[in-house]
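Usage

Read records sequentially. Each one opens with the input sequence:
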Amino acid sequence: MTASLKASTLSLYKSHSPNRSPFSQKPSAGRRSLKVSALSVGDRIPASELAYFDSEGGKHTVNLAEICAGKKVVLFAVPGAFTPTCSLKHVPGFITNADAIKAKGVDTIACVSVNDPYVMDVWAKSVGSGNKVMMLADGGAVFTRALGVDMDKTNKGLGVRSRRYSMIVEDGEVKVLNLEDGGGLTSSGAEEILAALGSPLSKESFLSSTPEINVDNVQPFWGGPSTPVSSAQEGQIDVGNVKPFW
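and closes with the structure output:
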């Protein structure tokens, strides 16, 4: 290295913090970082690919924008497969009321979660979604981030997850959106979708119609052994008291 080149390199590093490379400096005050805002009514569904398993065990990828093109779709998201609120309240509500929802002209009901397709497949079988609700895996959170509804749960050991929401999409455009602040379930259930479609359902009727869950087949999201719950096996789960796991 020539003397002039050494001097130039030394001058470059001295102009920055002595403990930090000049190539890792923070952006200047006038530079703004890109931040995606959460979607809203009137927005269009992005062309993102998600994965799922069919009833015969075949793995597929599907473009969500193509599914919504020319159709009416109910799309809802949960923070994680096998989590209490999602398994006992949110997903069962849509399974139980799938026929009533589709009777209002809905072509497809789909659930999105930031999990891999293998987990979603086992979860689908556990909750009995069958052909009533598509269980779509957004493993890399690409779709979730495109919507601007991702939330960082790294401090709880869960990584990136999706905020809970439900929406009605017509020909790719969001017509109705129920977006929760986080993972709680207060306004994004099947009850609110049915009301938006013109078929209100009371909370009492909704809770009483929640199907019995075979908790023997539901594994905790952290992968440990499940704990038998005799009252749950008897169909006596008080779903009204189920709290979000975070």
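Summary fields computed downstream for this record:
- The chain has a mean pLDDT of 78.
- The longest helix spans residues 84-96.
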